[in-house]
Specification:
This protein is α+β, with helices and mostly antiparallel strands and about 525 residues long. The longest helix has about 55 residues.
């Protein structure tokens, strides 16, 4: 069979619908206000090859409807979301000469350009919104931190009625102390045990409130609130009383161990570093005595009645309770009447020797110096503290004597000398100590197991550049907030580096495991 000729390809057709003025009038009225609501299903459609130009199509329209080519104006229509159409734009003479395919390509390219421009605008808008959200987040974080700080420094205002209800109308049964600073009561406010001090004068009260508002430290007693009406301050209650009571074992309290005594010395030293580095001027305690150092349940020390001695130092007056104060007072202060940070260092020296020997403060420096000279120091160390390492005890004796130099210029610098000697005794991890299980009492938690910021047993202890160990979460939050000073000493940190304290972490884990085995804490 002879080959059959291939059929000619059928040209591709496109549908073009033409709306005339008559169509507009018939569908939407002669006013033409709604010309974009034409129903395209009711108007005439033309089937035109895609290769045909619009110019040739206009000629077909001229034959069909009459208007000449030059009188025709063709518009492209855009489909709306509701299914209707409206005019989009008039076709240019250049588009009239293009085949429909090329014209559609050109339209698509223009639409791509428009879409790209819209995408860029949307991206810029999204970036701006993202930046605004980040700014709002940063502001929110800052406000939360500020509110947290404000809450930490919040001092409540109590009424005299609140204090009377807490202390059975200030009954002597609730009174636990009566000093030159005022009377102290034990009470319960909002189901919380507190210490309430009625200041002996309005000026003393205002001075103490002013200092406590700006001096917050883990080793300074926390103030809960005030009662301006009664010139009273409400403090946290510390169950172990003051250091004087602990040294002399008032009420048959158990004697302090040598570890606790070393830690107390370190706590007092850190607190003085914090107070003395206060800007613009140092805060001097001025009356640093064991009776003004309170002891909490974990045998950590907290300073009390600090920064107020200048109220008792009017020219020509004698400080109250001079007999008890005199052994702790800076000798140069007695001649010049001027309190300086070096005055606190003298008092610290007396406290060091008292904790080491358990002796009364009067002439204690002379007795310890004589014992060192005759190599009899071991005879003076307080035996009730346990087996105090002799090397450490001797270092403390020498350090205490150097702090008690008669002239200020001979006393050691608190940071570079005193703290440098005390630091190894309080920051080096110690082997946990326990009571015998047969005694039926719980083992005390070693004080160095607690984070000085969170006041909780540490899970991930980290050593900061100030030499202190903190819970990782606590010290990281401290540094992330832009603090560049030590939480303990208020001295500028050399850097923000943290080093895991693996030895201490191991001791804590061993301690907790033994507690679980003895049934003193539940298994996790």
């Amino acid at each position: 069979m002879p080959p059959q000729p291939e059929p000619e390809p059928v040209p591709r057709l496109q549908i073009i619908k033409v709306v005339r003025e008559d169509d507009l009038h018939s569908q939407i009225g002669k006013d033409g206000h709604y010309f974009d609501l034409v129903d395209f299903s009711r108007i005439r459609a033309f089937h035109v090859p895609v290769t045909e130009t619009l110019l040739s199509f206009k000629k077909q329209l001229a034959e069909e409807f009459g208007p000449q080519v030059q009188c025709q104006c063709l518009w492209s229509w855009a489909r709306r979301q509701n299914g209707t159409y409206r005019p989009h734009k008039p076709l240019s003479p250049h588009e009239d000469k293009l085949p429909e395919v090329q014209r559609k390509v050109q339209i698509l390219e223009e639409e791509v350009v428009v879409l790209k421009r819209q995408a860029c605008l949307e991206k810029e808008k999204a970036n701006m919104e993202c930046d605004e959200l980040k700014l709002e987040r940063d502001n929110a974080v800052r406000q939360v931190d500020e509110l947290r700080d404000q809450n930490m420094h919040l001092i409540l205002e109590f009424s005299l009625e609140d204090l009377e209800q807490a202390t059975e109308h200030l009954s002597d049964v609730c009174k636990v102390g009566d000093t030159e600073y005022g009377r102290v009561y034990k009470g319960i406010i909002h189901k919380t045990t507190v210490a309430i001090k009625l200041s002996c004068s309005q000026s003393l009260f205002q001075q103490e409130v002013s200092i406590l508002r700006k001096c917050r430290h883990p080793n300074i007693v926390s103030v809960v609130g005030v009662c301006s009406e009664a010139s009273a301050l409400v403090y946290e209650w510390l169950p172990n009383g003051n250091l004087e009571d602990c040294i002399v074992s008032t009420n048959n309290s158990p004697p302090l161990s040598w570890r606790n005594r070393a830690q107390i010395i370190g706590d007092v030293c850190c607190t003085l570093l914090f107070l003395h580095s206060n800007k613009p001027s140092a805060v001097v305690h001025g009356d640093l005595r064991p009776c003004n150092i309170l002891i909490d349940a974990n045998y950590r020390s907290k300073l009390f009645n600090f920064g107020m001695s200048n109220l008792f130092l009017a020219p020509g007056t004698c400080p109250p309770n001079l007999t008890a104060r005199l052994p702790y007072m800076d000798p140069e202060f007695l001649t010049t009447g001027e309190l300086t940070p070096l005055s606190d260092i003298y008092s610290l020296g007396v406290i060091i020797l008292r904790l080491l020997t358990g002796m009364p403060p009067l002439s204690i420096a002379k007795k310890v110096a004589a014992a060192l000279e005759s190599d009899d120091l071991h005879l003076m160390i307080d035996k009730s503290a346990g087996e105090w390492p002799y090397t450490q005890a001797k270092q403390l004796a020498i350090l205490g004597l150097s702090c008690m130099e008669m002239t200020r210029e001979k006393r050691p610098d608190l940071l570079s000398k005193v703290w440098k000697g005390i630091e190894p005794m309080v920051t080096r991890p110690l082997v946990p100590y326990f009571h015998s299980a047969s005694e039926g009492s719980c083992a005390p938690v070693p004080a160095h197991f607690f984070c000085p910021i969170f006041k909780e047993i540490m899970k991930d202890p980290q050593v900061a550049s100030d030499g202190f160990t903190y819970e990782a979460e606590a010290i990281k939050h401290w540094l992330d907030r832009g603090n560049n000073r030590s939480p303990m000493t208020n001295v500028t940190l050399p850097n923000g580096d943290l080093v895991p304290n693996h030895a201490l972490r191991s001791c804590i884990q061993d301690f907790l495991e033994l507690q679980r085995q003895q049934g003193q804490i539940p298994d996790r």
